[in-house]
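Reader question, answered in our methods column.
A reader sent in the components of a multi-part assembly and asked whether the whole thing could be modeled at once rather than chain by chain. We filled in our standard form and ran it. Here is what they sent:
COMPLEX SIZE: four components
ENTRIES:
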Amino acid sequence: MGRRSIHTAEELRELILQAATELIEKDGLAGLSAREIARRIGYSPGTLYNVFENLDDLVLTIEARLLDRLANRLGEPASSGDPAQRVLHLARSYLAFTHENPKLWNLLFEHHMPSGKAVPGWYQTKLDGLMTRIEETLSPVMGTSDPAAVKRAARVLWAGVHGITSLSTADKLSNVTSDSAGPLVEDLVVTYLAGLRGQGRA
Amino acid sequence: MGRRSIHTAEELRELILQAATELIEKDGLAGLSAREIARRIGYSPGTLYNVFENLDDLVLTIEARLLDRLANRLGEPASSGDPAQRVLHLARSYLAFTHENPKLWNLLFEHHMPSGKAVPGWYQTKLDGLMTRIEETLSPVMGTSDPAAVKRAARVLWAGVHGITSLSTADKLSNVTSDSAGPLVEDLVVTYLAGLRGQGRA
DNA sequence: ACCTGAACACCGTTCAAGT
DNA sequence: ACCTGAACACCGTTCAAGT
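And here is the structure of the entire assembly that came back:
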C-alpha cells in the first residue's frame, strides 16, 4: 500500500514510544515486542524501522526520557536547609520516583546492549548529571576539602540506595526487603552519614 | 528415531546445564536459547522438555547451584576474630564471588518469573540462608540486644553491597563505578559500621 | 522408555514493491 | 516519501510417531 500520513512523523514516534512504554510497564522487557507495538498502533512492523534503528534504539530512547524525568524530579526545591536533611530528601525522592514506575525503572538495569555495542555518549552524560547532583548535595555535609572523597561517598550512597530499591522493585528478592524499602533507605543514609562524621570525614 | 541412551538421565541433565551455563556466561540471559542448547549437546529441542519443565525451570536450577556455591564460599573459615573484620571479610568474599562469574551472577537479577508465577519455595529458603549468615556475622558487632535491628542492618548492608556489585558487573553504569567496586564496598562497610557505633547501635 | 522432528504460534529485521 | 507485507532466519513448546 504505502503512504498514509494519517500521523506526522512526530506523532508516529510518540505513538510507538507510548505503546512500548505501556508494554514494559505491564510485563517488563520480556513483554516488549516490535510486532506487538505495531499491532497496537495499527501499523505494520516495518514502519517501526523507519523511525528507530532497532528495538535497542527504541528502548534507549525510553530510558533517556526516564532519566530526564528523574533529573527533573530531583531538581525540585531543596526543602530544609540542613545539609544532611537535603541528602535524605534526595534519597527519598529517588525512591519515590522508582516506586512510581517500578517496571520501567527496572528497565534501566534489565536491558543490556548486545555485546560489543557500547551505550551512546548522551546516555553516559545523563548519568553523569545525576551523579553530579548527588555530589553537590553531599558536598556541604562533608566539607568541600577533598573532591575525590565526596565523589566516592556519592557513589557509595547512590549504589546503596540503588541496591535497596532494585531489590524491592524487582520483587524477586521480596523477602530480603519485606521490610519496605523506605526505612532501609532511611537507615542507610542516616547511618552512613553518621559514619562519615565518626570518621572525621564530615 | 527415539531411544539413544548414549547418556544416562543424570548425564543428560548435566550436559544441558553445562551448555546453558556456557551460553549465559558468554552473552547473559539474552544468549540463552533452548534450541541452541540442543544443538550444542547434539539432541533435538524436544529432549530438553523431558528433563526440565521449561526454560524458566532450567534457569532456576542454574540459579540454585549458584546460590549454593556462594553459600559454600561464604562458609569458609572466618579469618580474624575481630567482629568488624569478619563483616568486612564476608563482604569481600561476596564481591570476589560475583566478580568471578559476572554474567552468571547477573542472571539472578536479570531473570524474572513470568508475571503470576512465584519463585519456588526452595529458592526463598536459599536466600534466607544467606541473610541468616549475614545476620550472624553482624550480630556480634551490634550486641545481640535487638534482633530486629540486626535484621535491618543486615539487609541494608546486603542491599548496599549488592548495589555496588551489580552496577559494576552490569558494566552498563560503569562510569558510576569506574572506581573499582572493591574500594566502594570497603568504604560502605567501614563507614556504615562506624555509623552504627556513632548512633550507639554498636 | 526415550528421543525425534514436524508443527504451531510466535519473534526481529530487511527490502522490493506499491501508492 | 511513506508504508506494506512477504520473506528470512530465528524463537519456545508440544506431541504423534518411531525404535
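What stands out: Chain A has two domains: 1-52, 60-198. Chain A touches chain B through 52 residues (CB under 8 Å).
Send us your own complexes using the same form.
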